[in-house]
Amino acid sequence: MFPNKMPDFRVIAVVSFLFLLCTWHQFIVDKQCTVTTSNQLKQSSMDHFEELPTDEVNENLSMNKQELVHLNNYRTKYIIYYCVGEKTCGGWGDRQLGIVSVYLMALAMGRRFGIMISKPCEISAFLRPNKVNWEVDANELHSLESRYLYLIGNKEYIPLLQWADLETLYPEDVLYVTTNYDYSTALKMNVRYKEQLLWTLQMSSESVFAKVMNLLFRFNNVLQMHLQKFFTVNIPRPYIQLVCAQIRIGRNPSMPGDEPRNTMSDLQIVWNFLSRYNNTSKYKIFVTTDSEEVRAIASEKFVSQFVYNSGEIIHVDKPYYGKKNVCDNVMKVIMDQYILTKCDTLLVSRSYFGENAAIMRKNKKNTFIFKTGEIFAWH
User: Where is the signal peptide, in residue numbers (predicted)?
Assistant: First the structure.
């Protein structure tokens, strides 16, 4: 039997000290490892952001939720691109410019970015978040202090963005913004936001636009299915090339509320351009337009080559009374623009709708613009 002895407290003290020392060392190692891993993940995310394609919407990219920035005692502040109600927001091209501008404001201000569009249809009926989660529950904003900036057609606002402290100017928790202008150049000039917008400094406004569009949007399943069907039916062989024209007439019986853009006599140069691609075994011709008359002429001129995305012609912000299936026709607008980005040869008119499609094209070769009665190579 072992004799009964009191424990040696000196031995216990030494063992306890060594145990605490080892534990503290492991804590420091784990902490350093955690910080290093966190920084690596953050850097990886930033690197991936820089490498995202800038030319087209990539439907296959998975959606990651936007990291929220918490300000003022951990209260999330928001900036929302807003197109709800009766006020004018502009056409789809105008809205795209506004969305990108408000997103850049969100980055500059360190705010959660959101999109609210319900005029004439909910945006979620066609588009989903891609790499940035822009869906915001209106209930989150209900009790928060807010301000609404309606800036459609307001060029005088742009110089303010070159120097202003926007967070001081707009301290409210929620800032709703409706605009149809490109703010990228002005925001890049603001020294307050150099760090937040560092990735844009060596990029053109066009490249910034294309990159942000890629970050924000992917098609929902319904729209994706319609697009796949269009290309499968109309471009059944890989050697067939798609030649496209976006023809904006402006005020005409199909678009009575619009401003005049071109006349029917102006279009002869467009028909001559498309007639170069008269090899019916090699080329298909796609025309999107705001005029039923133009569509009928194109169909007759290129009857054996003509391909068309069915649906009524509408302007998403103009009166559409008497039109049936308005949301289906809005989907046609979005589809038409995306089809333009995929064309082997593209001719666009002077309009944000067509010009934005040209900007988002993967290959700018064989891209042309029609204005003042002439056709020019895309710059």
Answer: 1-25
At the topology level of CATH, where does 74-219 sit?
A: Rossmann fold (3.40.50)
Looking at residue 320, what is its pLDDT? 63
Tell me which DSSP letter residue 148 carries.
E
CA separation for the pair 256, 254 (Å, rounded): 6
Query: Within 10 Å of residue 21's Cβ, how many Cβ atoms?
Result: 10
| Residues 67 and 46: beta-carbon distance below 8 Å | no
* pLDDT 10s digits, 255-273: 887 888 888 989 999 999 9
Class of residue 127 by CB neighbours under 10 A (exposed 0-12, middle 13-18, buried 19+):
buried
Asked whether the beta carbons of 104 and 194 are under 8 A apart, the reply is no
Portions of the chain given CATH number 3.40.50.11350: 221-377
What residue type is 218 in one-letter code?
A: R
What's the token pair of residue 106? 């969100």
The whole-chain average pLDDT of the chain stands at 83
Helix (H) or strand (E) holding 357: helix 352-360
221-377: CATH topology is: Rossmann fold (3.40.50)
Reply yes or no: is the peptide bond before residue 129 cis, omega within 30 of 0. no
- More reliable by pLDDT, 275 or 31: 275
From residue 336, how far is each of 287, 307, 354 by CA, in Å? Answer: 9, 12, 10
Nearest of 224, 216, 50 to residue 130 by alpha carbon: 216
Tokens of 34: 């955690």
Q: Which two tokens stand for residue 50?
A: 């820089």
Supply the pTM of this predicted model. Answer: 0.81
Who contacts 368 (Cβ-Cβ below 8 Å, separation ≥6)?
273, 345, 346, 347, 348, 375, 376, 377, 378
Q: Which positions ≥6 away from 79 have C-beta within 8 Å?
A: 102, 105, 106, 109, 111, 112, 113, 114, 174, 175, 177
Dihedral angle sign, alpha carbons of residues 120, 125, 126, 131? positive
For residue 352, give the 3-state DSSP assignment: helix
